[in-house]
Hints:
The protein contains 16 helices and eleven strands. The chain has helices spanning about 10-20, 25-40, 50-65, 110-115, 160-165, 180-190, 220-230, 250-255, 275-290, 305-320, 340-350, 355-370, 375-395, 420-425, 430-435, 465-475; strands at about 45, 75-80, 120-125, 170-175, 190-195, 215-220, 260-265, 295-300, 400-405, 440-445, 450-460. Helix 2 (about 25-40) packs antiparallel against helix 3. The longest helix is centred in the last third of the chain and has 22 residues, at about 375-395. The radius of gyration is 21 Å and the shape is globular.
Amino acid sequence: MSTPLYFQTIAALAGRLADGGISSVELTKAIIARTEAVDDKVHAFNSRDEADALRQAAAADERRAAGRTLGPLDGIPIALKDVIAVRDQPLTASSRMLANFVSPYDATVTERLKKAGAVLWGRLNLDEFAMGSSTENSANQPTANPWNLDCVPGGSSGGSAAAMAAGEAIATLGSDTGGSIRQPASLCGVVGLKPTYGLVSRYGLIAFASSLDQIGPFTRTVEDAAILLQAIAGHDERDSTSFKTEIPDYRAALESKRGPWKLGIPKEYFGEGLDPEVSKAVEAAIAFYRERGCEIVEVSLPHTQYCLDAYYVIATAEASSNLARYDGIRYGHRSKQAKDVVDLYYQSRAEGFGEEVKRRIILGTYVLSSGYYDAYYLRAQKVRTLIRQDFLNAYRQVDALITPTSPTAAFKIGAKADPLALYLCDIYTIGVNLAGLPAISVPCGFTSGGLPIGLQLIGQPFAEADLLAIAQAYESGHDWNQRYPQL
Ligand code: GLN
């Protein structure tokens, strides 16, 4: 049986668009129809604009007819997490605070996707302001995992991952502050790439923790991740942390870089809390690399045990400062109950933010307050330096690291009521953000209950070309990405 259009890859569809086998309007209609058929169950989308998507698709077809095609993304339907600005489209961060907000401008990544001819399609659900690991913290309905609708898709980019698994987009973008691309990719059985901090512009991304946030792709294959990264990576003068570095041809690197590589297994990532089925799948992946001639060595990242603590000080501190702008005055929710202007701030924020966001703002304000700044924030920054140093030390020995992406497969919606239980979902992903490194999650198997498992590969700074090649070496020896959930 041939794969339905909505489960095909960018690479394959670009070929079919080029040879006239399909049009972008046909493809976009297939995605719209699929979404209408399944999104009542999956709830991946916060909002969609079918007419606008079809207009973009028609424009792509006209360009193609005139011989002015813009590249492999031209005419491909791509949906964005609802924290990435698209001009004249809603931008809500899945928060009541921004429930009626429409973006007056495009994020840099949006602008670049438009230039590449992509058909921008819909805003995807997330944990409010990207704070969470399950998409249950959304002010909207929680998104369901297409592999088991009683389970979470992971988070915070749960909508971006679930939309991929369900065939509601050909690719999506998410953001990753502590694991929010890789963990949902792992739980939904798709590829998710978090680029090196500074590779992709954050301009137009609603800020959570500015020193950690990065935008990155969700795709079905590593090759598609390379194509999408190519379009969005590169220096942007509107983001002062954007790095000036030459952008290689990522897709060509998949051909030219063939290993064998020296791969490190950080021993701290295989301890307590790791589900035996996940451990087994990752062990099998390690054995696969070994059989392909890669040298596998055990390495140590001794400060791993402090990652979660350092993250929850730094991320909340930055969040408390970033979210101060939602004051009910300039934009966002404004309370109708307020007695005076000071009360307006209080009431607007009390009504607009959800529980987890408030918890983080309170925590972050505390760790930044005078008298505590040195004890918490400054100390966490020093620990962060040690964590980065651990990785750089390991890279003197190895090309990349292999770990599980998430300690468990998807869990039931509502199963982790205690915030700390949710925070622990990210123990293998958070160190990467603190160290500013690139990392990718690729599908590496299924549990006995039929839920996807993800393998994390962590690369050296700005070495995405190598990371993608290493990931593809695994992917090309397996067919996990050719299984689709029954919906
Ligand atoms: N789950 C982590 C948190 O809640 C990471 C979220 C993210 O990467 N945006 O902060």
